[in-house]
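Give me the fold.
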Amino acid sequence: MEREIGIRVPRNKSVVGKNIFAHESGIHTAGIIKNPFTYEPYPPELVGGKRELMIGDSSGLEVIRFKVEETLNELMHVNTKIEKSDPRIKSIQADIQKLYNEEQRVSAISDEELRKFVEKYFIISEMLQEHDN
């Protein structure tokens, strides 16, 4: 619609706005990961949209786990499964909460920032542990 008639569609416009399929809060994102129809009445692709799971100050371990898994799969080109109880996930969550609590951050964590956490806790720390053994 934006392309064809040149009118910008508000991000929060029902049915077609870009934020309609964006999810951040803990219980909400956990529901979407388990069953998208919990909070979405139809697939985003039906209206040209895309689901976006974001990490923010109200995000829980499940969305962090999901996004870390996604990032690891992208970085290593293998299908990796991570448990929500993995201490590295909890370390990433603690670092993220520190950004919001101590540094007064207000924006969501970008995919690039998450990638740095994944590299720090899942790749570099693993390499250091192997080196020490």
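Helices lie at 2-5, 26-34, 61-76, 87-101, 111-132.
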